[in-house]
């Protein structure tokens, strides 16, 4: 079985992983705290920090896997989608490593890799299955027919669910990254304290721009009456917002599952780390007798393990790329 080195650098996590013999031997993630001061990811700063982190991350991944550079049979890397400068660092490193060791180069679609994270360890979904893929930049319902035969049957028409959470955190004055803090406070609040609208979008598509605006006006109107409104109601606001976002996602997923007659239902992407969404999927699964699948937290956010497992399946198919490959900020699914 081949030894695959995975490289992920699509946004602000520099990650490297090694997969071999059916086991993820290592998964190193270097985060970038520099963006906290700006309340969001600054693309130019992200690419510079990737340059600092890429070699130490790869060295540590190889060390933790207890293999040598000479043992690696192929390098898998994120080609896109993502921030162009960040992607360029990972792509360039992967090309150089593969060229130096004279081993195959494997390009991976970041969003497909999130879905394939379900195959890192048991239990694994069976084909075909539906995957709700939710992150700061993407919200999709994907019909997964095979490892690389995937059809997007629903997507956001404007903003992503993760972006709605990030925007809410800014409105509430929470530090970056705000998503985990909303999750934290939501666990202590009443999810039925406040009501927010559910967009009426046909089919399996999503829209979160209107919800973001509704949350903004809700906060502004209540602060005009009570300057301490956020302080006195923070936990309930977080819980109510989280519940609305989760119900929007799960209502569409439920409709798609019924229409396609699929019983294996999966959750993937950075927002799949959200406790309310995970719990909501498990409850909905029990109600509809679904087989539900949610990756471990380490495989939910951007990570190289998902790139390595995708690389393994591409290696098995002999699906390699050449040294002329360039990163793509927007990559076709």
Comma- or semicolon-separated keywords:
globular, 18% strand, single chain, alpha/beta, 5-stranded mixed sheet, 2 domains, 333 residues, Nucleotidyltransferase, domain 5
Give a brief outline of the structure.
The chain has 333 residues and is α/β, with parallel strands linked by helices. It has helices at residues 43-65, 84-101, 110-116, 161-171, 179-186, 209-225, 229-260, 275-288, 304-316; strands at 4-8, 14-20, 23-30, 74-80, 105-109, 129-134, 139-146, 149-155, 264-268, 291-293.
Secondary structure elements and pairings:
Elements: E1 4-8, E2 14-20, E3 23-30, H1 43-65, E4 74-80, H2 84-101, E5 105-109, H3 110-116, E6 129-134, E7 139-146, E8 149-155, H4 161-171, H5 179-186, H6 209-225, H7 229-260, E9 264-268, H8 275-288, E10 291-293, H9 304-316
Parallel strand pairs: 1-4, 4-5, 6-9, 9-10
Antiparallel strand pairs: 1-2, 2-3, 6-7, 7-8
């Amino acid at each position: 079985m081949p030894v695959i080195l995975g490289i992920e650098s699509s946004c602000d996590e520099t990650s490297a992983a090694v997969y071999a013999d059916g086991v993820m031997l290592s998964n190193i993630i270097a985060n970038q705290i520099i963006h906290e001061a700006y309340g969001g990811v600054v693309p130019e700063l992200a690419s510079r920090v990737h340059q600092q982190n890429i070699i130490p991350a790869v060295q540590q991944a190889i060390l933790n896997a207890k293999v040598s550079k000479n043992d690696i049979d192929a390098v898998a890397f994120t080609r896109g989608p993502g921030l162009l400068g960040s992607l360029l660092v990972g792509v360039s490193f992967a090309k150089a490593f593969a060229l130096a060791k004279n081993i195959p180069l494997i390009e991976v679609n970041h969003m497909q890799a999130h879905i394939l994270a379900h195959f890192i360890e048991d239990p694994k979904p069976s084909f075909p299955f539906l995957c709700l893929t939710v992150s700061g930049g993407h919200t999709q319902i994907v019909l997964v027919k095979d490892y690389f035969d995937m059809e997007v049957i629903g997507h956001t028409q404007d903003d992503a669910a993760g972006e709605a959470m990030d925007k809410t955190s800014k409105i509430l004055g929470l530090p970056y990254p705000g998503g985990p803090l909303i999750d934290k406070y939501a666990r202590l609040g009443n999810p039925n304290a406040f009501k927010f609208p559910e967009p009426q979008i046909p089919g399996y598509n999503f829209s979160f721009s209107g919800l973001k605006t509704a949350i903004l006006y809700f906060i502004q109107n209540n602060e005009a009456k009570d300057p301490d409104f956020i302080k006195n109601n923070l936990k309930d606001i977080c819980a109510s917002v989280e519940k609305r976002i989760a119900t929007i996602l799960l209502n569409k997923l439920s409709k798609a599952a019924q229409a396609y007659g699929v019983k294996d239902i999966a959750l993937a992407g950075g927002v799949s780390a959200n406790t309310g969404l995970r719990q909501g999927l498990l409850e909905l699964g029990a109600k509809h007798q679904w087989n539900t699948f949610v990756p471990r937290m380490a495989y939910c956010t951007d990570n190289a393990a998902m790139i390595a497992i995708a690389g393994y399946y591409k290696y098995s198919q002999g699906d390699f790329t050449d040294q002329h490959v360039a990163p793509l900020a927007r990559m076709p699914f």
